[in-house]
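worker-3 :: picked Related to 5-carboxyvanillate decarboxylase
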Amino acid sequence: MVKGTIAIEEAIIDPAGVAGIAAWANLLRPGQDPNVTITAHEKRLLDIHDDRLKSMDENGVEYMLFSLTSPGAQGEPNPVKAEEIARVANDYLAGEVAKNPKRFGAVAALSMHDPAQAAQELKRAVKELGMFGGLVNDFQSTGEDGGDKEYYDTEKYWPFWEVVQELDVPIYFHPRYRITQDLKPDTPYGTRTHLVGAGVSFHLDLSFHLYAMLSSGIFDRYPKVQIVAGHLGENIPLNLWRACHWYNHPFKKDNRRSKEDYIYYFKHNVHITTSGNFYTAGLKFCIQELGVDRCLYAIDTPYENVKEGQDWWKTVDLPADQKELIGRTNAIKLYKLPLEI
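worker-3 :: tokens ->
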């Protein structure tokens, strides 16, 4: 296999999780027959070794790193069920990767209801299943009706981040759709459902979570922890100067929880990817602000297609050494992938 790109935010679903995608069919493709949408989307998510691999071969993708599609375990408010979703998906995905480990790897799905249990599942996935990290789909839904949300910047989650640091594997922060309660007719998004999803709400919601993580003090306590933000960092890099300008004011600085500002942690604890954001000027800006070692390639299949991502990548006018780092080397180093540099 000729060396090609490594794409690290590529979604799948396990057979047990297919039923769960029905809830999001109307948001994914508004106005279409939900049954048709589910069937087509299900096929794309389940496919690993057929059309997806063929498209990789045809377009120069050497390796994909798979994860359970959003919302995964984060969408299940019942802790026992959420843990089962993650465990079943991880076992399934590990089995699929084992069929072709030279082309595929995986990161673990995690239920985040119980930080200790999440840490144990991550440890099992890395140590026993051979996975290369974990992925969380924004906040964890909780409560009897799924109307509550938990974020991972609080002291409750210190035990989880301690194990992440111990394992030395990255955690990918991925967006998810708004919960049902946020989509009722009398709510801001309920009357503007066209704003729900990848174009607008995904980066607005997840950027809040990322800012919360960066300002929580977690990276002071666990300085080796690395997290990954897709879609060119969920648009945060463009706002870093202004965010830091205000965060560093004396009236803020004297009372904040973190020792450093946002850009410091972006340069020490965060990596960004190109997933679903094939914008050359934006990528160049991220390189300028964060450094080329913090930027990685991703496509976001099957929500985006391999050909479109690769066609864009071939047009990106960066020096060859920078393209090699972003397209391949940085992923191998960050995830410790079993590939030659």
